[in-house]
C-alpha cells in the first residue's frame, strides 16, 4: 500500500489510537509496524483473532501484558553461558508471572473454543523458576539473606563485627578520648568508621587519617583498635560479593535450561498483546468484523469515520461495485463529501490491517492491492505547483498504476481551472477508469458530471443531504440522488439582496435552471416519501408492540384460569376430605351409643349436628355468584339453548325463542313454558356447569380411591382387645360404606381372649348379618368371617 494514501487518509492516527491499547513495549512496536495486507487468508485470520479477543473482553474484561519486556538480549547471553544480573533475572520472573496470569485468563471450559486457544495453551509459566528468582532476589539492588547458606553466614558475621565496632567506638567516644574529639559522633569515610578529632590533638588519638574538614580544624581518624575489625569487614564484603555472583550464576544456569520456552513465551505474549490491542480498539469504537470479497464490492452499513467523535458523527450507508463501479458525489461545501471519501478509504485500510471497522454487522469490503487518494489542496510555491497542477500530477500517477484491484478516490476532480475545461477533463478521466472497471469515487460541484452519471450505465449519482428548512447539512449520504448546490437559497438566507440573486439567476441558461428545478422537485418528493416511510415504520412497530401485549395478556389469562381451576379442585378435595372424616367420626359415635345407654336427646343432637355439617359442606361445594360469570344478557348475547336464571322465581331454565322487540321471550322451565322479559333474566356461564362437574368428578374420584385402599381382610394379631376393637370399628365402617359383601378378621388362636373380645363386639353391630370362624384350611379358629347386611 502506497505511503501517500496512508498519510492522506490519516492511517497513522488509527495506529496511534491502537498504541494506547498495547501494554507491552514489544506489543506497541508491532502496532507501529502494522500495515494493510492484500492477502485474503491473512486478513481473515487476523479478523478472526480480533473477533475472538473481543468476545473474551466482553466476558472477562481486560488483561495486561505490561511485564512482557524485551529479554531477547538476555536470552542470547544465556545461550553463550553468561550470567545475568539481578535486573535481568527479575525481568524473567516478571515475564513468567505475567504468563501465568494470562494463561489463567485464557482458561475456559471445553464447551467453548476459538482461534486464540493455541496461543494460550502454548504458554509455559515455569512457576518453579520464577519462585526461585523471587526468593533469592528481593529488588534490583538487594539479594535475600536466605538465598544461600554461605551468604547467610557471611552477613551474620558482618553484622556481628559491625556491632563490635560500634561498641568499641562508643566506649572511645564516651571514655578517655572524649576531650580530643570535635564532636561525639561516628563518621564514615571511604568505607571506614572514623572519629572527628581536633587537629591539635592528632597525636593523642593513634590511628589512620582518612579525611579532614574544609577548614582543617577537624581530621577524621580511624582508631587503631578498630582497624583490624574494619579490615575483617572488607574481607567479608569481598566474600559476600563472590557469593552473590555464585547465586546469580546458579539462577542463570537454571534459566538457561528453558531458553526456548522463555523465548516462546515472550513471542506468544507479544502476539496476544497485539491481538488484544486490536480488540480493545474495536470495543472502544463499537466496531464489527466486516465480510470480505475479491469482487470489488463495498457495502457499508451505518459506517462512521473513526476519527470523528462517535457521539457526533453521522453514520452513512455506502455501496460501490455491485450495480455500479463509479460513484459521483455532489453537494455544497462542508456537507460531508470529503468525509465520505475518507470513510470508505480509511475503513478499507483498517479492515485489511486486521482491525474491526466502526459499522454495523454484515458490512462488506473488497480486498484492494492499492488505494489511490487525491484529497486536499497540495499546491506548492517552491515547486511551482498550482492547485490544478498538483491534482493533475496525482491523476497521471493513478492512471498509470491503477487496475481492477485498486480503489481510486478523487476530491473535487478538475477543480482549479476553467469550469468548462475542468468538467471536460474530469469526465474524460472518470470515463477512462470506468471503462477499465476500476472502483472509483469522486466529489464535484460540476453539473456536467451529474448529467454524465445520469446518462452513463454503471455510474451513479450521490449527494450529501441538505435541510432547506434549517439551511444546514445533515451529512447523510443519499445514493441515486444528484446533489443540488443550493447557492441561491443559502445566499438569500445569509442576507444577499433579492435583486442580486435575481440578476444571478438570469445568468444561468434556461436548460441549467430547468435541471436545477428538477433536482429540487426530486429532492422534495424524496423527502416526503422518506417521511411517510418513517411514519409507516413507526406504526408497524406500534402494531407489533400491541400484538405482543395482547399475546402476553392472553397467556396471563390462560395461566390465571389454570390456577383458579387448580385451586377449586384442591378446595373441593379438602372439603370432601373433612366431610368424610366428620362422617366417620359420627358413625363411630353412633356405634358407641349402641353399646351404652345414651339419652335419645343427645343422639338427636348429634344427628342435628351431622345435618348441619352436611348442609355446610353442600354450601361450600355449590357455585357462588362471585365465582361464576352471571350477568344480565344483551340481545346479541342471547341465543336459543342458553341457560338462564329467572330472577323473580329463582329457578333455572333454557331459552327456546329469540327476544321480540320488547325484549320478551319464552323459557323452558322443566315441563313449563314461561314467557319472561330479558330484564328478569341472568345468563349463566358454562363455567358453572363445568365447576359443578369438577366437584362431582372429584368426589367420585375420592370414593374410588377410598375403595381401592380398603382390603377385604384386617390383621389384628398381637393387639389388646381395646386396641383391636378400636381399629376394627373404623375398618368395618369403611367396608360397610363401600358395600363390601364380607371381610376376614385375622386374630389368631392364642388363648382365645382376643377372639372372644372381637366376637362380643360383633354381636352389638346391627349392620352385620352374621359372623363365624373360618373353615378348615381357611384359617380355622384364627380367622373370623363377617358378612354385612345388604
Observed structural traits:
single chain; 790 residues; alpha+beta; six-stranded mixed beta sheet; six-stranded antiparallel beta sheet
Major sheet strand order: 12-13-14-10-15-16
Shape: flat
Q: Quote the beta fraction.
A: 15-25%
* End-to-end gap: 109 Å
Q: Count every helix, treating DSSP H or I runs of 4 or more residues as helices.
A: 22
Gyration radius (Cα, Å) is 52 Å
Q: Which percent bin holds the helix content?
A: 40-55%
Can you give a write-up of this model?
By secondary structure, the protein is α+β, with helices and mostly antiparallel strands. It is 51% helix and 16% strand. The protein has a six-stranded mixed β-sheet, sandwiched between helices. It has a six-stranded antiparallel β-sheet with strand order 17-22-18-19-20-21. A four-stranded antiparallel β-sheet has the order 3-4-6-5. α21 links the parallel β23 (713-715) and β24 (742-746). α21 crosses α22 (753-763). The longest helix has 86 residues, at 510-595. The N and C termini lie far apart (109 Å).
